[in-house]
Sequence to fold (359 residues):
Amino acid sequence: MLIFHMGNSTLAEGADQAKVFGVDGDADCFARAITTWLEENGRWQSPLYLFGESYGTVRNAVLMRLLGERSVKLCGVVMLSALFDWVQTMEGEDLYHLGMTPTMAATAQFFGRAGEGVGEDDWFKQAMDFTEDVLAPAPLRGDRLSPEREAEVARQLSQFIGLPEELVRQRRLRITLDDFRRNLLADEGKVIGRLDMRFSSDAPVAVQSSSTWFSSGDAADDAVEASWTNAFRAFLHDELHYKAPARYLANNYDCVGTNWKWEHKQPGFEYPSISPNVAYDIAVAMRRNPHMKVCILGGRYDAATTWWNVVHDMACLFLSPQLKERLEWHLYGCGHMSYVDVPTLRQMGEDMEAFYAKV
Fold:
């Protein structure tokens, strides 16, 4: 069985970054690297799996379609902390605010601000149901929503996410991630994380009011990134005796992210989209290869790639019952990075072993 990992790769000298730094160029680059490796090593008959995390799930979605178009049959694809529809990352979009709600509710319960006496799984399900059955119709109506109904929805939303009802009404039911991170523990002088909202830190002083600066900070990142980056560097040097051509970077956003081309030619659409929805690529790949399995993993405290949005995206593909049987879902009590949480690691290990064993 082959699982491809390319986390320490670099561009070849003379390569045109503009052709690689983008949704479609990146996936094409990976597809060419995989097919070249299969050819050079004579492994065309080996079972093939993809495992992607975070942006790696965007890559996986396009890659699983591209590989199929290049006569590479995949046995399975794993999506950890997934994001498929980019529009749902944009504040002001209804789907952004809906997707945040169950994650905020889980976090409010973790800090004892909501959900007292309710099990974590039950509370999250209640928040998912509230989001779809009660909250969703309200922002769609905008100022056509009656004051009485707005007040009632605000009261319920406040109870789920632990923020004052007055603030929820002031924001017209649209609580941003920064609103929540700043205000949930404001009475304790703390702010909470983003990648894993269970983490918290002392709040910045009032004069540090830049929203861009605040949103780029993360208590979860501060707590764990240096530890695992240094552990990985030590593993390469001490265990594998591998010397990379360049130093392994935990983050290279200033070079890569700022130059990333988000335009994507979605299959079945006439023109490229500047706000990609790669769920359509998943649907095409599954319909062309109905024996392929897809496993979606996520954390209830992940505010970077929220669980509700992934569930919503997949539901809007209208897959047949037979294809939906090839989908597998696992929600864990972790944030964006499952490897921070030991109970999650153990459970995910068991789930992955079972997934790879299935035919």
In short: Residues 219-239 form the longest helix (21 residues). The longest strand covers residues 293-299.
